[in-house]
Amino acid sequence: MKTDINNFEDIVWLVDSFYSKVQSDDLIGPVFDAVIDDWEPHLEKMYKFWNAALFGIAGFKGNPFARHEPLSLGKAHFDRWLVLFHKTIDEKYAGAMAALAKKKAELMAEMFLNRIQNMKGGTDTVIV
Asked: Which keywords does the record carry (predicted)?
């Protein structure tokens, strides 16, 4: 039986499971592997990010967009990211917080893609 995302332990499971999928994905895995040498600090930062995004717990510091802006990303990358994120949530969670996590991920992906496209002249694929 699925439960909702209720606490920090759930966030750790979500982040770890999601990024395990990301690392083995043939489209977005290489993008992450090109910029992340040590996954542990990234995962720790993502625990804090999602804890802040879902539960309002202070602790996340950073500018997520600034880390993504220089990468060669297009719509297909963000679409895959969302598919993997939704799939991970759906494996274990259902409820209001699970739905909120999906919605926040969708809004973030849309905002990042729009900002990247606007910075690069409105094209679908970023030219670096």
From this structure: Heme, Iron, Metal-binding, Transport
Task: Name residues whose C-beta falls within 8 Å of residue 63's C-beta, 6 or more positions apart in sequence.
Answer: none
Q: In degrees rounded to 5, what are phi and psi of residue 29?
A: -55, -50
Residue 82 has pLDDT above 60, yes or no: yes
Q: What is the pLDDT of residue 59?
A: 85
Give 74's strand partners.
Answer: 125
pLDDT in tens, 88-126: 999 999 999 999 999 999 998 998 888 877 766 655 544
pTM of the model: 0.86
- Give dist(CA 26, CA 33) in Å, integer: 11
Tokens standing for 7?
């606490």
Report d(CA 26, CA 4) in Å as an integer: 29
Element counts in the chain: helices (H) and strands (E)? 6, 0
Phi first, then psi, for residue 118 (nearest 5°) are -65, -35
Q: What are the two backbone dihedrals, phi and then psi, of residue 45, each rounded to the nearest 5 degrees?
A: -65, -40
